[in-house]
Design goal:
Length: 549
């Protein structure tokens, strides 16, 4: 199933010898924490649910018992499309107990995406909601199953609407009807086995499945916790989706390793976030720039305070110095985290260095991780030079699912992950991100492929050429701007943002890939070899903004 795993044998031996990698799986970690903190609250959510470690242990064992009865085996893949709620956590722990591979997906994925990924992973089960608002997930999975024959079992979260007749069983029914799976039936897989597949966008091959082992995740989160000084007394606010590294690794596994608590906020609003912070005495949070931006601006405008909050970990975009200072005025240390799904995390600003660095860097490497800068020929560069950033360490992924050719382009034989980011490294080991070699756009903490967004525009009536740039934005990091070249004689009054969105919606393109601004232009500036000169389009945006006042 995972023949494409790529691990350098010498590094593997070194990591085990140094104790970075061990024989301890995430199930072992879970059992250790439950034994130490059975009555400690682990998961709270904004639907009013509160569960201790012992309660999540019980619920996850009941779900595991049902899946075991359905024939789910060790190393089978479980696909789940669950919101930021406790059911997601129950599913994660059930996967640990069955020795399964977790494969969480974005809530936005439609039937076509579900079928494609379940076929890639050979997924044997799907766990998702019946509906959330106007979105009908029952219809999605029923359509997807027609083209994903490996999926034999469906479990529904029915908190918003009931399950149609004969469509599947619910979490609630499982919790009521099934006894916990006996411990002797737990699967004891290897710590070097795949524990998690996370989807990430890229410039080659579209969305890819990043393979992470138990050792990858356990190491990164335990060292991250240590560097942050987190303990069982810490409570985390997690408003980010749990199907990404921020939510899954940092939001769920990190607190679990420390015996801490996580508050899951599905229905994000800044006022509610502030209320929850004060109500639960939350000590830290992590997410994209917009979350802390909103908190700072709301309190600055409306008054209030968050005295329990010590620091906010910010990923997805560089953190400007003025935001570090404004956060500090509220008593919050704002710390940038740098990494990717493939190398998560590898550098970050320590809380006690946040004010001194003041947004000038993305921090230095965590313990056991190497970072370097190379030129276009692959030569190591000295401090202060600009080149591509590479990282190597026990947290680095072990390959892309069924895409060994693409794996080999970014994960070299010596174990270095090539980020595609242009960076400098100072003499203290701090990384400063200059730009991106890859054509990626960072919006609200998500890395989005410019090529994928641009390809979706193909066929829109009345345009003959088009391209995408990221428009700088204080809150989101970047917004999606589409430059469109009208065909001769086209009715330009019909080439509007509203019509572009309607066109993309009709193609079932995910909302996160929709442009937020449309600009008409006579010609897309390109080099002699046909590459778009995006810096010229950015200058064009600035000029148009200036002229529009």
């Amino acid at each position: 199933m995972f023949d494409e795993v790529k691990i350098n044998p010498a590094l593997e031996e070194e990591y085990f010898k140094k104790g970075y990698w061990t024989n301890e799986t995430l199930l072992d970690c879970w059992e250790k924490t439950v034994a130490a903190y059975p009555d400690k609250e682990y998961v709270l959510d904004d639907s009013g649910n509160r569960f201790t470690y012992a309660q999540i242990d019980d619920l996850s064992s009941r779900l595991a018992a049902y899946l075991y009865e359905q024939g789910v085996k060790p190393m089978d893949t479980l696909t789940y499309q669950l919101a930021i709620r406790y059911e997601f956590v129950v599913t994660m722990v059930a996967a640990f107990k069955l020795g399964c591979v977790s494969h969480p997906l974005e809530m936005t994925y439609q039937a076509f995406d579900l079928a494609r990924f379940m076929n890639m992973t050979g997924s044997v089960a799907y766990l998702g909601p019946t509906t959330i608002g106007p979105k009908n997930y029952v219809e999605r999975i029923n359509e997807a199953k027609l083209n994903a024959p490996s999926c034999k079992t469906v479990v529904y979260m029915d908190n918003e609407s009931p399950v149609p007749d004969n469509s599947g069983i619910t979490f609630r029914e499982i919790f009521e009807k099934y006894e916990p799976l006996p411990k002797e039936k737990y699967a004891r897989v290897s710590a070097q086995d795949i524990a998690l597949i996370l989807c990430t966008s890229g410039t080659t091959g579209g969305t890819k499945g990043v393979l992470l082992t138990h050792n990858n995740i356990r190491y990164s989160e335990s060292v991250f916790n240590k560097d942050l000084g987190l303990t069982d007394e810490d409570i985390m606010l997690m408003p980010a989706p749990l199907n990404h590294a921020t939510g899954f690794n940092h939001g769920l596994v990190g607190p679990m390793l420390a015996g801490g608590t996580v508050f899951l906020q599905q229905n994000y609003s800044v006022k509610k976030a502030i209320d929850y912070i004060n109500q639960e005495k939350i000590t830290y949070s992590m997410g994209a720039t917009p979350i802390i931006y909103d908190i700072i601006h709301y309190i600055t405008k409306n008054g209030g305070a968050v005295p329990s909050m010590r620091f906010y970990l910010c990923g997805g975009a560089p953190v400007p110095g003025y935001m570090v200072q404004k956060a500090h005025e509220l008593g919050i240390l704002l710390c940038e985290v740098y990494g990717s799904t493939e190398s998560c995390p590898h550098t970050f600003v320590r809380p006690d260095e946040a004010l001194e660095l003041n947004g000038t860097t993305s921090g230095r490497a965590i313990d056991g991780v190497e970072v370097k800068i190379i030129d276009s020929e692959g030569n190591d560069l000295p401090p202060g030079s600009t080149g591509e950033e590479l990282s190597r360490g026990p947290q680095v992924f072990v390959g892309y699912l069924r895409q060994r050719d693409i794996t080999d382009t970014v994960l070299d034989d010596d174990g270095w992950f090539h980020s595609g980011d242009l960076c400098t490294l100072d003499d203290k080991g701090n990384i400063h991100v200059v730009g991106r070699i890859k054509d990626m756009l960072l919006r609200g903490g998500y890395s989005l492929s410019i090529h994928e967004i641009n390809d979706n525009l193909e066929g829109f009536p009345g345009i003959k050429d088009h391209d995408i740039v990221g428009e700088p934005d204080d809150r989101m990091g970047e917004k999606i701007c589409a430059f469109l070249v009208p065909e001769e004689g086209a009715d330009t009054s019909q080439i509007t943002l509203e019509n572009v969105i309607a066109y993309l919606n009709g193609k079932q393109v995910q909302k996160k890939l929709w442009p937020e601004r449309v600009e008409l232009i006579d010609v897309i500036p390109r080099t002699a070899t046909g590459k778009t000169q995006r810096f010229k389009l950015i200058e064009e945006i600035k000029e148009r903004n200036k002229n529009r006042g």
